[in-house]
């Protein structure tokens, strides 16, 4: 209704007011991008209109360069819908394994956060489905490379329990583990590890979510909250959840210190390039400048908080790499080396 739209508008405006006080806008952008990506890819966004409204406010505030990647993420989502429609209408779609449907989001790597590649051996049906899509995509767009990010994927599995049929909404990793139980009722940790090829930390988290959480599709021997390499797992024939469609949450790693540190480091790395580029740009135009004037001009050009000491370090580095040289007659003056 009208009221809720006005409330949303007011909330976004309050967010923008806070945003004005943030000095390191690039840090904000990096974290915003990471969270927006999760919302878009995992279908967690409350409203695409609200997301877009926030981005247009950020654009007014900071200019289009700041929001270009965020807008690119939305464009990717819309283009993916078109690609999927073309795939479903194409003869290629007939090559999908019986009873398997697939939806792929095709993302431009420059717009999205970078994700670590996580190895997993997909169940045969899922592997075939991704190959069918990959062939279709390459026939339509030659020269593009597709890399599947299975850590962001999800599946809906049909599960026949003795007490009735259920639909399980799971991650790709959970699906890879659960589908092994089509062929055996009980598997050891070692069996599962070699069959799905997930590294230990990821596999333990996945098994924990399936056998130790609220909804237990698998049972674990011996019982307990933690998964160890000597455990064995069985299909839970006594499963009695009332709902037909059940979402089995992955055990989300909290945004770990590590993840946050990585995002911050990435930003600092980007800043160094920006500082170097600004210093070289200024010197290229001016040819000769005193230390004081170069620092003053660089501080004007760069959009994030900086200490003169940070700039001094980058200037030293540019001298080492022979972009600049100290003036032979005055060590406080730099000359540009073409």
TrEMBL record:
Keywords: Isopeptide bond, Ubl conjugation. GO terms for molecular function: ubiquitin protein ligase binding. It holds the Pfam family Cullin_Nedd8. GO terms for biological process: ubiquitin-dependent protein catabolic process. Residues 1-211 form the Cullin family profile domain. SUPFAM superfamilies: Cullin homology domain (SSF75632), Winged helix' DNA-binding domain (SSF46785). GO terms for cellular component: cullin-RING ubiquitin ligase complex. PROSITE patterns: CULLIN_1 (PS01256), CULLIN_2 (PS50069). InterPro entries: Cullin, Cullin-like_AB, Cullin_CS, Cullin_homology, Cullin_homology_sf, Cullin_N, Cullin_neddylation_domain, WH-like_DNA-bd_sf. Belongs to the cullin family. This is Cullin family profile domain-containing protein. It comes from Astrephomene gubernaculifera.
């Amino acid at each position: 209704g009208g009221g809720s739209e006005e409330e949303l508008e007011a909330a976004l405006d309050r967010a923008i007011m806070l945003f004005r006080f943030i000095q390191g806008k690039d840090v904000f952008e990096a974290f915003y991008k990471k969270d927006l990506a999760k919302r878009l890819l995992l279908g967690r966004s409350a409203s695409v209109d609200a997301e877009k409204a926030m981005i247009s406010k950020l654009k007014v505030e900071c200019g289009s360069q700041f929001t270009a990647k965020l807008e690119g993420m939305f464009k990717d989502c819309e283009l993916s819908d078109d690609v999927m429609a073309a795939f479903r209408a194409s003869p290629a779609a007939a090559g999908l394994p019986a009873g398997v449907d697939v939806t792929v989001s095709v993302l431009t790597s420059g717009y999205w956060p970078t994700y670590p590649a996580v190895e997993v051996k997909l169940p045969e049906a899922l592997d075939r489905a991704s190959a069918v899509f990959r062939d279709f995509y390459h026939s339509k767009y030659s020269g593009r490379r597709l890399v599947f990010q299975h850590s962001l994927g999800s599946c809906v599995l049909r599960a026949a329990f003795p007490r009735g049929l259920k639909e399980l909404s799971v991650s790709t990793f959970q699906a890879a583990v659960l589908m092994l139980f089509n062929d055996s009722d009980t598997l050891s940790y070692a069996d599962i590890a070699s069959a799905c090829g997930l590294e230990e930390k990821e596999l333990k988290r996945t098994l924990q979510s399936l056998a130790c959480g609220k909804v237990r599709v698998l049972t674990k021997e011996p019982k307990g909250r933690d998964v160890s390499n000597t455990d064995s797992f069985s299909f839970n024939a006594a499963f009695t959840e009332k709902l037909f469609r059940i979402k089995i949450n992955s055990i989300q790693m909290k945004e770990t210190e590590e993840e946050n540190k990585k995002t911050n480091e990435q930003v600092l790395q980007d800043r160094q390039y920006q500082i170097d580029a600004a210093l070289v740009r200024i010197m290229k135009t001016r040819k000769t400048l005193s230390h004081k004037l170069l620092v003053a001009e660089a501080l004007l050009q760069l959009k994030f908080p900086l200490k003169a000491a940070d700039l001094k370090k980058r200037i030293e580095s540019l001298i080492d790499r022979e972009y600049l040289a100290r003036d032979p007659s005055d060590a406080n003056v730099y000359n540009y080396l073409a």
